[in-house]
Automatic annotation (TrEMBL), chain A:
Compositionally biased tracts (Basic and acidic residues): 1-14
Organism annotation: [Actinomadura] parvosata subsp. kistnae
Protein's name according to its UniProt entry: Urease accessory protein UreG
Pfam families: cobW
GO MF terms, alphabetically ordered: GTP binding; GTPase activity; nickel cation binding
Binding site for GTP: 38-45
GO cellular component: cytoplasm
From TrEMBL, chain B:
InterPro entries cross-referenced by the UniProt entry: UreF, UreF_sf
Annotated organism of origin: [Actinomadura] parvosata subsp. kistnae
Quaternary structure (record): UreD, UreF and UreG form a complex that acts as a GTP-hydrolysis-dependent molecular chaperone, activating the urease apoprotein by helping to assemble the nickel containing metallocenter of UreC. The UreE protein probably delivers the nickel.
MF annotations from Gene Ontology: nickel cation binding
Family membership: Belongs to the UreF family.
Keyword terms, alphabetized: Chaperone, Cytoplasm, Nickel insertion
Protein name: Urease accessory protein UreF
The protein's role, per its UniProt record: Required for maturation of urease via the functional incorporation of the urease nickel metallocenter.
Length: 233, 224
């Protein structure tokens, strides 16, 4: 299984210190930035929380949430104490969550820049998009790779329907498999449809809230990070 | 110079963070002062002749090459609301990033170095226009237009207004926009002789007050 796009790491062109250039202002390789998108309620925040709990002992992590109406996602992460408060920032998106992660990434880049200023060099920055539709994707100017989170309760035909999130994300997470029997979702069909839409791009079926459910996602991040750190600065 | 650069700078899709701000429209919609096309038109006219005029004057002066740090102080003096100062600087920082990619210049670099947390948006807008080879009048137009285009776009989303009616609001403001931009550019010409006091200082107290209320709201779609 191929884990990476051919264009995994965007061309480095310098648009200021927190643009897509691979090198930070200090000449050190900057933090790997991973975007998490997907429909409302699919489990993006739960994934971020579980990733932080699993990886925080080995990595220096920060989180940017894009809340549409409130600061709820940031506040959930704070309440759960998955990271110290100064490692979590909320960006306000102005009624259009996909604009803030794709067409006009200014506010998110600023949040990333501020986290780096306050915390010093980081290994990993997770950027959660506001819950959106199946066409939401992250700009390469903002993230190095994107995870798309859908869930079995949202309808087991979503992988078949496709859309940029399902077809082009670097990792597709089909979450809440624990609910499959209750909602009558056909997991095998979902896996098969995802494979047909995504070719060699990886998909995991999991339940991130159950014990060990985050492991395949955390392992994927570790692999990306190893490749990123080894890459040219 | 290429006049067409003005189209790029004034395009609502220019990626400088403006989409997350409503220019006070969300607060006005919440208070039901803006509820239809007619009240949107009046809101925009008021904003254009106050906040829009002030922004246009600052932008024109920056485009004319007047010291941006002195204009920063002039912008503070004309922005009593801390929430609006903060929003203005945040937008200025985001515009600076986009402008440095679009029209790199030593003057933009110098402002970014002097104000890493951001300079007032109209000042940056003027300096961006200057770096793009545009005139002070062009910069005044961009600032004046933006003072009404942002609220109109936000209100289309907030009230589900008919987008054709909303765009007509902007079109009908063309004469006012001409007037405001010309007045702002003319005032900027007097800055070398009379100092920043020559720049417009029209205020809109209700915009200031509701901006303060807006940032305290736990649930809102737009940052300002
Ligand atoms: N059964 C089950 N529930 C889950 C799982 N993961 C998340 N949830 C629940 O699904 C709901 C939504 O999860 P969130 O993580 O807030 O979803 P989100 O995608 O961040 O939602 P928005 O940010 O509002 O778009 C919450 O009630 C979670 O507890 C899972 O693996 N299994
Ligand atoms: Mg969430």
């Amino acid at each position: 299984m191929h884990l990476h796009h051919d264009d995994a790491f965007p061309d480095s062109h310098v648009h200021g210190p927190a643009g897509s250039a691979g090198e930070g202002p200090d000449g050190r390789r900057r933090a790997l930035r991973i975007g998490l998108g997907g429909p409302v309620g699919s489990g993006k925040t739960a994934t971020v929380a579980a990733l932080c709990r699993t990886l925080r002992a080995e990595l220096s992590i920060a989180v940017v949430t894009n809340d549409i109406y409130t600061r709820e996602d940031a506040e959930f992460l704070l309440r759960q104490a998955v990271l110290p408060a100064d490692r979590i920032t909320a960006v306000q998106t102005g009624a259009c969550p996909h604009t803030a992660i794709r067409d006009d990434i200014s506010a998110n880049l600023e949040a990333v820049e501020d986290l780096q200023d306050h915390l010093g060099p980081l290994d990993l920055i997770l950027i959660e998009s506001g819950g959106d539709n199946l066409t939401a994707t992250f700009s390469k100017g903002l993230v190095d790779a994107q995870i798309f989170v859908i869930d079995v309760a949202g309808g087991d035909d979503i992988p078949r329907k496709g859309g940029p999130g399902v077809t082009t994300s670097d990792l597709l997470v089909i979450n809440k498999t624990d609910l499959a029997p209750h909602v009558g979702a056909d997991l095998e069909a979902m896996a098969r449809d995802a494979k047909a839409q995504r070719g060699d791009l990886p998909t995991v079926l999991t339940a991130v809230k159950t014990a060990g459910g985050i492991t395949p996602v955390a392992d994927w991040i570790r692999e990306r990070l190893a490749a990123w750190t080894a890459g040219p600065a | 110079m290429h006049r067409a650069a003005l189209l790029v700078l004034a395009d609502g899709r220019f990626p400088a963070g403006g989409h997350a701000h409503s220019g006070g429209a969300e607060a006005a919609v919440t208070a039901r002062r803006v509820r239809d096309v007619a009240s949107l038109r009046e809101f925009c006219r008021g904003r254009l002749h106050t906040a829009g005029l002030v922004a246009a004057g600052l932008a024109a002066a920056a485009a004319a090459g007047y010291d941006p740090l002195l204009l920063e102080e002039a912008a503070d003096a004309r922005t009593p609301s801390p929430a609006l100062r903060q929003a203005g600087r945040r937008l200025g920082r985001q515009l600076l990033r986009a402008a440095r990619a679009a029209w790199p210049s030593p003057e933009l670099d110098a402002l970014a170095a002097a104000r890493p947390r951001g300079a007032h948006q109209p000042v940056v807008l003027g300096l961006a226009a200057r770096s793009a080879g545009l005139t002070p009048l062009d910069a005044a137009y961009a600032a004046a237009y933006e003072s009404v285009s942002g609220p109109v776009t936000a209100t289309v989303r907030l009230l589900r207004l008919d987008p054709f009616d909303a765009t007509a609001v902007l079109a009908r403001l063309a004469a006012d926009l001409d007037h405001v931009a010309a007045g702002a550019a003319e005032a900027a010409q007097r800055v070398p002789a009379d100092g920043v006091a020559a720049l417009p200082a029209a205020s809109a107290p209700l915009l200031d007050i509701t901006a303060e209320q807006h940032v305290m709201r736990p649930a809102r779609l737009f940052a300002s």
